[in-house]
Write a structure and sequence with these properties.
This protein is of the alpha/beta class. 39% of the residues lie in helices and 11% in strands.
């Protein structure tokens, strides 16, 4: 057995178990991790629709290597209202995104677990996730989730673009580190027209921030080295979040 295989055994993938095996690991002491990443959401002309899903899957692997948790199947749809003008984007209603997480947590909690951590890879998803966490409190269930702003301190040290946060310098850099085969830098662009209330829009006269490409920022500035810095900071924060959750009684 390789060292990687030994390390990977720290965490358990729920999907690979039978129900009797699941019964043994879904205990009151268990922390259940739920990855959340869009598999159909625009990320400009240079990144794939499954960009957030790829990030969620990467983070899932890193958590499995380093933390004694049970990892549930990845949730690949949620609340993304800012991108609905771009073909291929699917966005759930706020209530649907909120309730899907509530239902997943309640389902597993029936068998023992009371601590859940959502590996969150979005920004607009924070609102339905917080609403879900608030609702779950009434059941004695603790649910926490990743806040991507946790990497802002390190991003400030490397960011060169004038602004933006989507399919931009930072996110593209992360993908060059996480899944370089998914990035086409020949199609990367700078597309930054300030910040207006609302989502991104392809209409120069529409409501929101104008972005004909779906990029908000300057993806041409991305490098793998920047991506490594941000991604490793994010992994460190996620693992710290999980251990803090484990300590809650």
């Amino acid at each position: 057995m390789t060292l990687l295989a030994i390390v990977a055994a720290l965490g358990i993938l729920l999907e690979n178990l039978t129900w009797p095996e699941a019964e043994k690991v879904l205990t009151p002491e268990t922390v259940v991790v739920i990855p959340l990443g869009a598999e159909s959401k625009e990320h400009g002309p240079h990144l794939k629709l499954k960009n957030d899903f790829l990030i969620a899957e990467y983070l899932k692997k890193r958590v499995l290597e380093s933390s004694k948790v049970v990892v549930a199947p990845t949730v690949n749809y949620s609340f993304y209202p800012a991108f609905v003008e771009y073909p291929g984007t699917a966005s759930l209603r706020f209530e649907t995104a909120r309730d899907s997480i509530i239902d997943i947590c309640r389902s597993f909690a029936r068998f023992g677990p009371k601590r859940f951590y959502v590996l969150n890879t979005g920004v607009s998803t924070k609102r339905p996730l917080q609403a879900a966490a608030d609702a779950l409190k009434a059941d004695g269930i603790i649910m926490r989730f990743t806040d991507l702003s946790v990497t802002e301190p390190v991003e400030k040290t490397i960011r060169k673009e004038p602004g933006g946060t989507h399919a931009d310098e930072i996110e593209t850099s992360m993908m060059l580190y996480i899944a370089p085969e998914s990035v086409d830098m020949k199609k990367a662009v700078k597309d930054y027209h300030g910040d207006q209330p609302g989502g991104l829009t392809r209409d120069p006269h529409g409501e929101g921030t104008y972005s004909p490409t779906g990029v908000w920022g300057d993806a041409t500035l991305a490098t793998r080295e920047k991506g490594k810095i941000v991604t490793e900071a994010l992994v460190k924060a996620v693992l710290a979040d999980i251990e803090a959750l484990r300590a809650v009684h």
